[in-house]
Design goal:
mainly alpha, Rossmann fold, five-stranded parallel β-sheet, 58% helix
Length: 537
């Protein structure tokens, strides 16, 4: 390397360290124009681009550096950090793990790893990394706050209580710690105390997503106090903030679960019913069943119950069909399914089973249940690949379901953005149920319909019928699901509810909000009648 290049690299480094990022990038651009393989210039430019917010550019540069010099531990760390910032959490894990070898990077890399693992819903691993950081730096208030939040999410409430108090003792104004403290108080039934904390928070939080979460928590506190009008206003404010500020607040109508896609599937099934399809001579598959229902219909509760059976493993909300989803809005895509041959079905099954195997934790259990509420309109795909697989459809009062979806703080992925508006929620429910009802009528057996209200009212009776439908022996453990060690946490928004014993207070909750629900009642009434629900006070 020439002296001139060394001097230019040194100058670029000085610009980076002094915060003159554009100058650093410009210097590196000049160096790489004449020396495209100059790895040091790519490294400096990648670091500078990260700091300017050019995350894609940072990833491109640091990927080249990491591939060329995998032993460069600082490059591994910065590459992993850039991948995390780009939302590529799974890919970020390997380089960040590599960086842990370097002593001065241990805390930084562990923090990034914990962030990625938490986003991947691998919370126990994230918790371990936070605990390792706190063993080295007991006074790291933000780590203590993050740890408390994850512990609450895992229903480890005693530990969460301890760590949130530590975080608040170090930084009393920490928003994350304040939010977790309010959540723990609310879960302990101290609604007034939690509401007061949250009312102070919503005026101080700058980040709109965090402010939305605080309003949602406040709505739950008002519900706990029986203040239904205040509750509805708080949930509405939470959703309005997300609608205005969140980049995912606009659902894709032609996505796999979008409204236009649902309409196209319904029209296709009306024109080409399943009974008219070419029936291939496929080998029967055993050991797979499917559980679906509209979001907030109680599928997580039933998941927890069934997971307590020694012969059942429920895969919780894994998009196992994602590799098989296509652009269903493309002409001919749906129509092609009616005539697929055996080899195509066999290949698709193998893709599905391979994806399933990646997520299994209890491979010794004889039955795997794929539980994903948004599979509801894809019964046609299930029946095409696994026509003999048992299917469980869990339903709940349409008004309770739609109200619960509107109140729920979902991550805005797939079609969850439809739930930010009550009218959109009702229209989405209607569209989803039109496809589901048509599909179930055409699919026939083996199909088991179950009402959430019946499951809560008489769990043993309903579960015995369901276990018999699944051709398994009865196990008393399904009735003690909330006491089973491996069902203590959940990756769904229902994680707080399923950690408790059965309760009935969520049944008929819509009656407290009849005035607010009146505008959407006309949309949902056909389904209320169809599912046999009565409107007694």
């Amino acid at each position: 390397m020439s002296k001139a290049i060394q001097q230019a690299l040194q100058k670029s480094l000085q610009y980076l360290q002094s915060g003159q990022l554009e100058a650093c990038i410009q210097y590196c651009d000049q160096l790489l124009a004449d020396n495209p393989d100059l790895i040091q210039a790519r490294y400096l430019r990648g670091c500078a681009k990260y700091k300017t917010g050019d995350i894609p550019g940072s990833v491109i540069d640091l990927e080249v550096v990491h591939a060329g010099q995998p032993g460069h531990l600082h490059a591994a760390y910065y590459y992993g950090r850039s991948l995390r910032a780009a939302g590529r959490y799974e890919e970020a894990l390997a380089p960040l793990q590599t960086a842990l070898v370097e002593e001065e990077l241990k805390i930084l890399a562990r923090y990034e790893l914990a962030t990625c693992l938490a986003r991947l819903r691998r919370r126990p691993e994230a918790i371990d990394h936070y605990l390792s950081i706190l063993a080295l730096q007991p006074g790291h208030a933000q780590v203590a706050a993050n740890l408390a939040s994850l512990l609450e999410r895992e229903n480890r409430l005693v530990e969460a209580d301890e760590w949130v108090d530590k975080a608040l003792s170090m930084t009393p104004d920490n928003d994350s710690a304040q939010m977790t403290r309010a959540t723990l108080d609310r879960r302990d039934g101290q609604y007034g105390k939690a509401a007061q904390r949250l009312q102070d928070l919503v005026t101080k939080i700058d980040h709109p997503v965090n402010r939305s979460i605080a309003w949602n928590q406040l709505g739950q506190c008002f519900e706990g106090q029986g203040d239904w009008d205040q509750s509805f206003r708080a949930f509405g404010e939470s959703n309005r903030i997300l609608t205005k500020h969140h980049p995912g607040a606009r659902p894709d109508p032609v996505g796999p679960h979008g409204l236009l896609t649902l309409g196209r599937i319904r029209e296709w099934l009306e024109k080409d019913p399943m009974a008219d399809w070419k029936q291939p001579d496929t080998i029967k598959s055993s050991g797979i069943a499917f559980l679906f229902g509209f979001p907030r219909s109680g599928t997580t509760l039933l998941d927890r119950m069934l997971s307590a059976h020694p012969d059942i493993e429920v895969l919780e909300e894994k998009s196992l069909f994602s590799a098989l989803h296509q652009d269903w809005s493309k002409p001919g895509t749906l129509e092609a399914l009616t005539g697929v041959h055996d080899a195509q079905i066999s290949d698709a099954r193998e893709i599905y089973r391979g994806e399933m195997a990646r997520h299994r934790v209890h491979p010794q259990r004889s039955l795997v249940i794929d539980k994903l509420p948004l599979n509801l309109p894809y019964l046609f795909l299930i029946r095409r690949l696994f026509p003999e697989a048992p299917v469980i459809f869990l339903q709940r009062h349409p008004l309770d379901v739609c109200l619960s979806c509107y109140f729920q703080a979902f991550e805005l992925e797939a079609s969850m953005a439809y739930f930010l508006d009550l009218a959109d929620t009702a229209h989405y429910y209607d569209a989803m149920m039109q496809v589901a009802a048509l599909s179930m009528d055409q699919a026939g057996d083996p199909l088991h319909r179950l009402r959430y209200e019946d499951l809560v009212a008489s769990p043993e009776d309903q579960l015995r019928k369901l276990i018999e439908f699944l051709s398994l022996d009865w196990a008393e453990s399904v009735l003690d699901y909330h006491q089973q060690g491996d069902t203590a946490s959940s990756n769904t928004p229902s994680y707080q509810q399923v950690s408790q014993a059965l309760y009935t207070c969520s049944i008929g909750k819509w009656r407290h909000y009849q005035r607010q629900l009146e505008p959407v009642r006309v949309i949902l009434q056909p389904w209320i009648d169809s599912f046999g629900y009565k409107d007694e006070p």
